[in-house]
Amino acid sequence: MPLGKWAALVAMAVVMETTAAFPSSLLIKNEDDSITWSCSGSPGEQVEWKWNGNRLKDSGQELVINNLDIPYTGNYSCWAGPRLLQSFYVVMRMKHTYFFKTEGTKEEPAITCWAPSYNGTLNCSWNSQNAAIFLARLKHQDTEAELCSTEVALPGNSRVQVQLKNCSFCSYAEETPVTPLVLVLKGLSRDGGYSEVEKTFFLWDVVKPDAPAYLNITGRKVSWAPPASWDLPTTYFPLQYSLRLESASGRHENFLLELITEQKWHKAQIRCQDPLIQSSWSSWQEWKK
Ligand SMILES: *[C@@H]1O[C@H](CO)[C@@H](O)[C@H](O)[C@H]1NC(C)=O
Ligand SMILES: *[C@@H]1O[C@H](CO)[C@@H](O)[C@H](O)[C@H]1NC(C)=O
Ligand SMILES: *[C@@H]1O[C@H](CO)[C@@H](O)[C@H](O)[C@H]1NC(C)=O
Ligand SMILES: *[C@@H]1O[C@H](CO)[C@@H](O)[C@H](O)[C@H]1NC(C)=O
Ligand SMILES: *[C@@H]1O[C@H](CO)[C@@H](O)[C@H](O)[C@H]1NC(C)=O
Fold first, then answer.
1. Residue 21 lies inside a defined structural domain of this protein
2. Does one domain contain both 243 and 229?
3. Whose CA is nearest to atom 12 of ligand 4?
4. Does the pLDDT at position 235 exceed 70?
5. What is the per-residue pLDDT across 110-161, written as a single tens digit (0 to 9) for each?
6. Whose CA is closest to 49, among 8, 90, 18, 12?
7. Which residues form a coiled coil (predicted)?
């Protein structure tokens, strides 16, 4: 689709009905598709059509759209007098790059997800390309059941981070075979463009603990606590810690905590990882003296 065509559509987009929330069901069509709807009331009833709330001249049981294009997307409804018979929310499929920035020369959108624990919280981040509402849904591969979802409305050209809460990962269940998780990300622009991308991953590949809750140094004694977001008990969800010491001269040394011996340090900081899955390390805690 040539750019000039888009420019001409801007004025059109402004007057269109705006959707505050992601519509619960969409009729997803391609550019130039032809669409025919049939709608019937009781025998003898006159059927009328509305588009984004505006009465259409067409009446009768059938509405036809030839050559779908952006100006024809939106909410179509048929009515028998004041009675709503049906409604369809028509969107036009766009390339995913209409909504999602890709990284470098890659075709795939750059979407990153990470989980601070196994307890059902997942953060995902991507760069949006166009003003849109995004719906993020998490499911297991080969099933449709939703584990958790969230939606966010965004201006174009921004970095977004969403948090999916209460996801039932079932990560402790000994499922065989273990099915990966799939993040389904749908974008819908105000002008009716639509695209959908997926990212497949295993939970253990994206676990990154938050930084340890604190590091306390008193004389030669160090004490610390796991991040508050980490799963308990730590006997079941162990963490290992890495301590970084800075000498008075500014030299750094790293230790896994079980290896630590007497050291002369000036400043120290700490981080953690899940040793069983060798997860990503958390970020470092602040330096402590
Ligand atoms: C479409 O319009 C119908 C009739 O006004 C309304 O009931 C429905 O909620 C609208 N759908 C969306 C997604 O806005
Ligand atoms: C996850 O996202 C939420 C909301 O954007 C943010 O407040 C929180 O700090 C994020 N957590 C992590 C571990 O990145
Ligand atoms: C998550 O679950 C808790 C307890 O079941 C509930 O109170 C809370 O509203 C849920 N949060 C979301 C975002 O669904
Ligand atoms: C750090 O250690 C000191 C001395 O043992 C103690 O008084 C203080 O409560 C500790 N702080 C934390 C956050 O545990
Ligand atoms: C899960 O962890 C998040 C922080 O990562 C925390 O806010 C939430 O309360 C925890 N939920 C449960 C059920 O433990």
1. no
2. yes
3. 216
4. yes
5. 899 999 998 889 999 999 888 899 999 999 998 888 999 999 988 888 888 9
6. 90
7. none
